Amino acid sequence: MFVRAYLRASTAEQDANRARDALQQFAADHSRAIAAHYIENASGARTDRAELLRLIADAYKGDVLLLESIDRLSRLPVADWQALKAAIDSKGLRIVALDLPTSHQSMRDTAGDEFTGRMQAAINGMMIEMMAAIARKDYEQRRERQAQGIHRAKASGAYKGRPADKNLHQRIGELLGAGLGIRATARHAGCSTTTVLKVRDQITDSNVV
Predict the structure, then answer these.
(1) Each residue's pLDDT tens digit, 91-130
(2) Same domain for 127 and 187?
(3) What DSSP element (H or E) covers 4?
(4) Residue 97 in 3-state DSSP?
(5) Which residues belong to the active site?
(6) Does the residue 159 lie in any domain?
């Protein structure tokens, strides 16, 4: 069994490493060591998360996908979540979240007799599905509140839009200029590939005479 820790933050300004110590302590408390950390800054509502996809590709049957909480794994709509869950299940990965006690049994090699093991797996699967649905609902509600706030700000003339992160854009430009690809640039800059593509297009447009 390899324990593979997945750490995610939504934006480049947030610290994706924030839960690293808590995950390491949890693993140690269960007499395990984390074999690899997969860290990225990307929205949980996206499916094209490079580090999550790399974790799944690296995994072997029986490995543990360790998270702080289920919303670090998914804020996806139901169809996308089911596709992601199917990919995780197809590799034989076991999801363990610090805030989901029913999942902690998966940190152990044995789970008692077959009936007990199947019952525990069923209960844990149901809880993961519920937590994923709650995470998506929370995402949708926050997006709705954000849109309402922007609408009110526009109506009052106070909305200025989100300022560009000049330091991040400069870093992306430097990495692209050094010949790195889109995914490698996103990984080194700690941002999404969408942001890299946007900055690349802006650089291209500025160089057009």
Answers:
(1) 999 999 999 999 998 888 655 567 777 888 888 899 999 9
(2) no
(3) strand 3-9
(4) strand
(5) 10
(6) no
